[in-house]
UniProtKB/TrEMBL annotation:
This is T9SS type A sorting domain-containing protein. Residues 1050-1120 form the Secretion system C-terminal sorting domain.
Amino acid sequence: MQPEYQIPKSRPTISSRLWVLLLLLLTVSFNGMAQTFSEGMGTTALSRESISSYYGKGGFNNDTERGFVYSGSAVLANSNSSADVSLNRYPGASGSNSVYFGPGYVSGNSGPTRSDSPPYNFQIANINTAALSSPSFTFGLLAPTGTAIGTLNAQFQVEFSADGTNYITATYAALTTNTVTSGSIFNQYAITSNIPQVNNLRIRFTRLNNNSNLYRLDDVVLNATAAPAIQVSPTTLIFNNTDVNTQSASQTITVSGQNLTNNIIVTAPNGFLIRTGSNSYTSSLTLTQSGGVVASTIVDVLFAPTAVQSYSGSVTLTSVNAQTRTVAVSGTGVAPAPELTASPNSLTFPTTQVGLTSAVQSFTVSGSNLVNPVTITAPTGFQIRQGANPFSSASITLTPTGGAVNSSIDIRFAPTVDGSYDDVVSVTSSGALTTGVDVSGIATPAPTGPFITANPTSLDFQTVSSSGSAQALTFEISAGNLTAPLVLTGSSGVIRFRDASAGGSFVSGPISITPVSGSVSLRTIEVQLFGPIPNGVFNGNITLTSTGATPVVVNITANNSIGNESTFTVANNLTLFSTVPGLPSAVQSYQVSGRNLLQDIIVRAPQYFQVSLDASFAGITGTGNVITVPRNAGNDIDPAVTVYVRFLPPSALSTTSLIIFTSSPAGSQGLPVEGTSEPSVQILTAPQQILTVVINTASASQALTIKAERVQQNIIISKSVSPNPLNPNNVQQFEISADNVNFSNTLMLTPDQSTFSVNQQIYFRYKPTYLGAAQSTLQFRSNDFNNTNVQSFGANDLLSGRSIDTEPTLRSSPTVTRSGNTATVNFNLPANYAALGYGEGRLIAASTSATLPASSQPLDGEGYLAGSQVYGQGPQIAPGYFVVYSGTTQNATIEGLDPAVTYYFYSFEYNYIDPNFNIAIGGAQNYLSPPVPGVINGIIVPGTPLPVTLVSFTGKLRNNQVALNWVTASELNNKLFEVQRSASGQEFETILTREGKGTTSSRTSYEAVDSQPLMGLSYYRLKQVDRDGTYAYSPVVAINNGGLASATFYPNPTTGKLTIILPQGQAGASQKVYITDLAGRLVRSQELPANGEISLSELQAGTYLVSVGTGANRIVQRVVKQ
């Protein structure tokens, strides 16, 4: 027999390759079950060698290889005949040694055997089945041919134990059916009961003591479903410190996989890279499985830090359903050593007089991996500069960009004492090795007497215009041994200069410089030519003088070949730029033209603005940029060039500034610009107060227009509730909607993303839950605003309304008792009348008219004062209909009645008590409407019988006169009748009289004619006067005369504006308009405008009498102001 191992560890011989072949065969034979271990009993056993002896010398297949423990009273056996071996009897049979369940030799390995004395057993321990999926055991067993499986289970027992003490019996069944004519033969059997899944499983085979059969055991195999597995070694890699942005030396890990269903993904953490073979390094790679296997593969790992810091993490190896493996990796990224160089490393200067300067030389400073600024310091006698800056002995500081510098430095020899100079320009940066440039030169003494130096001594401005030079030129001066100031004098007023070291404006001179200890230190003089410059060649100079010193002349030349002034024009005004943060505004433009320019025009945009010669602003980044408008026709810009401008704010802001234009010597110009990116939102229409809305119902809606600009985010509209003691829980009384269909307490408006604006109608309605007045303030919230909290609009945002109570459903039937000048009304209300549907209160209007038009009933939401319940003192619900009572009592007494006059009372039910707090709310009255259209009949309140029985009193309009007729049935002491007329129905005047018949029982007819009636509606009545002076009034007759009677008043009711249209023929005449209240008090008078419109906006809500015209052409109309 050859040993077989799934993963050979201590015996990597050729047998392992045979095992792999066997493994493949078993994989096919057991339908995808991988062999976890197979025990074939080895090949080196002696005949009837004890288990302990064979285990002690490592003869079993899995003792030292897997750490299994073998024990038992059975012995090892070699084959005695072909029937005693398992070879070829079942798949995977080893065919060599087996375990014999019988007696061993008495002593040694030969000789007589012991007597047969079962039971005999064989156990394999230390089997780990805890993590296996669907484990199964098979074994080969030599047993008497044809033995029934039940008999066999009873004679040869298989058991499992998790602790070595408690065993459970397993059942098994045959997998093969080999037979022989007689004797025993090997077959393969499989455990059919559950296999415990524990860390240390023991399987024990026993020949029991109730039989004499001699059994042999071979090929104990544990199979389980294959679980995907990844192996990696080592599991930790530590890298040496590595410069950032470089790569360390690589280290390796070895990766393999078995039973895989997917590839292995290897991923490196930040700062580490991986690869296989000679491939490029990357942060992730894939190891491809084939047949479920990834062969042993070397993966290179290197450290590639990008920052100065410690790095630690794990290289992860994953595959679907396999346990993730990791390799811990760590390393530290360190800063690379800074490098600093100067080239060339030495400069030699020519001999130079003290007080003068040499020609300029240059060197270049370069550096990398720098973490600190570079400082360049010149030694005594030398001066340095960077770019066009002035020369100075002060140090120059270079700031690294990305750790690097590369700058050219100018240097010159400027000796202050004579002698030989040999020193170093030091170039330093903290952390880097110091470098430098060796500099040397010889200085000769300055003159012993007063002297002046200038360098250069000629300045050529070349082409200039009549406006001046395009630039400033410079020369340097110094002086020594002076006893008086150094004076610089220009030869012409167009030459202007200044001491650059002292600053200040350019002057035409002279400039006087006071020596210090006889010396004027080296300094720079700037020179510029200012117009008017004469045409042609210009020659001038600046002379430097001081007492005792030889004057020095600096010659100045120029050529005014232009011959004219340099000018340019910026045309067009810019309007306000508007946009949202982070997005450019709409583009505006202006035009630039110029004449006789020496330079192109430089255009400088202010912060938050961009300028461009291209409307697309291609290549323009940032704001406050500078562009050049080139000359396009010699020294001119003609045609004009268009310059484009836009506003690009980074945040919400408003700004004003200037675009600056320069082209020396033409004057500078500025173009004002202003821009805003601050969002705005407003309500364009003012909400109107909503009146007479019944509690717990919704009013009709009103529309409001919301306009917002420069907004990107949604706008949330909501409302705040004004406190009211009747609304302690601050229940919302108004609702808002975006579509006039769905109303709620908030709504959201979405800006147009192409215009960043909102221009939308919203709607609100009043939905009261208590009686009286309510207010809410519209408010908004948007993340576009610096204040992202809820805030008010500030205007047109107040919603207001007044509610009224529900309308009663039942009306009472009052009775009236008349007594002289008083009348008592009893409303005859049942108990709990309000709950039954009667009004909580009642209003009585009294009149001498027997009917009331249905359109003249009390107005909802109007609380009428009863005038102390005296007739004629309270307000009128219509002309001649006085409110004499309003309240909640069961009865009322009305005073001020004329005993001789018959009155008619009109009773109205109303509700006005808040249901939540049981409090009466003024102005919340809701009056019960009449049951049917038409007129309302009054409750008659008869007076004392008149001394005259009036049958009828009528009036008719005939030929622009009013004919009045009345008939009496009888008269008693009747002295006379006064015919009275009124324009308002309240104040009457007597216009005619007719003598009465005294006392008569006969029928008498009377007539009278008003030959000059009032225009429009007039009222007539009779005043019957008795001989004793008592009197009584007849009912009132109304007559509508022509003239202005056809005038039209609209709208009525009105909220403010009233239009009066007069009939043809009257419209052109001047007409006076009078407005009185129902008590007859004049409120206002004015001329009627030509368009007929008058404003009632300033009047309080109520009923007014509006009259137009005078005398006979006067007409009065009742108008309701809401």
